[in-house]
């Protein structure tokens, strides 16, 4: 009987398997130590269906967020940026706002409840910017730095009744 060391046995649950749809992924350097990460196996026989399900879920959440924003008042423009959009740089500190809303008669109480629920859903603090329509139009025509940086950087217009 040989007493030679046999090296560490690999955990079979962590080994890629083309019959599995979701497999463990190697975390990148900035995300190490945050917990397990998984990726979708493109060779999985139900890859297309699983991907469509995930994308539909994200689309439904986006549509619900748009409906919730529209209920805040007479919203003319709503822009998602920062942590609310899927970019590689999840928390870019140069982003001044994650959600920017332009409109009139926006209820402070409703916006407080909306923001509290949004932060609970995503698990992070959301930087919010709100302007009335007159202030936004003035600052937009004056090429205000805040507005310019927001519109030139990565963003998604959720509501755009102003045509910007």
In short:
It is built from 4 helices and 6 strands; from the N terminus they run ββαββαβααβ.
Write structural notes for this entry:
The chain has 164 residues and is α+β, with helices and mostly antiparallel strands. The protein has two domains: 14-45, no CATH class; 61-160, Beta Polymerase, domain 2 (2-Layer Sandwich). The protein is 34% helix and 18% strand. Helix 2 links the parallel strand 4 (99-104) and strand 5. The chain is elongated. The chain starts with 21 loop residues before the first strand and ends with a strand.
Total DSSP helices: 4
Largest sheet: 4 strands, mixed
Q: How much is the radius of gyration in Å?
A: 22 Å
The gross shape turns out to be: elongated
N-to-C series of helices and strands? EEHEEHEHHE
Tell me the β content.
15-25%
Report the strand count: 6
Task: Looking at this protein, list some descriptive labels.
two-stranded antiparallel sheet, Beta Polymerase, domain 2, 164 residues, four-stranded mixed sheet, alpha+beta, 2 domains
């Amino acid at each position: 009987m040989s007493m030679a060391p046999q090296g560490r046995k690999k955990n079979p649950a962590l080994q890629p398997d083309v019959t599995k749809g979701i497999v463990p992924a190697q975390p990148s350097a900035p995300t190490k130590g945050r917990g397990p990460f998984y990726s979708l196996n493109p060779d999985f026989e139900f890859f297309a269906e699983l991907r469509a399900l995930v994308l539909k879920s994200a689309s439904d959440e986006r549509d619900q967020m748009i409906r919730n924003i529209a209920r805040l008042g007479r919203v003319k423009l709503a822009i998602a940026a920062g942590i609310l959009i899927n970019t590689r740089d999840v928390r870019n500190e140069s982003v001044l706002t994650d959600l920017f809303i332009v409109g009139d008669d926006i209820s402070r109480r409703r916006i407080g409840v909306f923001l509290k629920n949004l932060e609970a859903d995503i698990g992070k603090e959301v930087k919010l910017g709100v302007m009335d329509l007159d202030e936004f139009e003035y600052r937009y025509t004056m090429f205000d730095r805040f507005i310019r940086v927001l519109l030139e950087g990565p963003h998604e217009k959720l509501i755009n009744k102003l045509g910007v």
